[in-house]
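Task card 7
Instruction: Convert sequence to structure tokens.
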Amino acid sequence: MTKKGDDETIESYVKRLKSIADSRAAMGIPISDWNMVLKLLAGLPSEYEPVKKLISRTRPLLTFEDACSMVSMQEHKFLQDHHEESSAFTTLEKVGTVVGVVSLTAAAVVTLPTVAGAVGASRMIVARWCSVCSG
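Output:
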């Protein structure tokens, strides 16, 4: 039995199935469209189970081309969902970085009056010291 590889796209899997069917047809052993649909479904991994059930329950059974289209749409949805998850993770990382920067800035702003006050007090002490020294 021909199975879809883990890193294989639906497009390449379908091309491989068609190539096998063409080779068999050239030898005088054609595979019916119905059998091609069953081979397509049988070789799909478990994450395609919902679309496999939908296709296998459709009456009359879909053509091989229609079944391939449905499976391709499912693959597209998987890729889109994966991209959205990746984007969400990246966005969360960015939000975490921004929150960290804002926290540091807020801490600096809170301590700034204290620092400014200390600098002002130091200037006053130095000024008084200088006036005592010169006078």
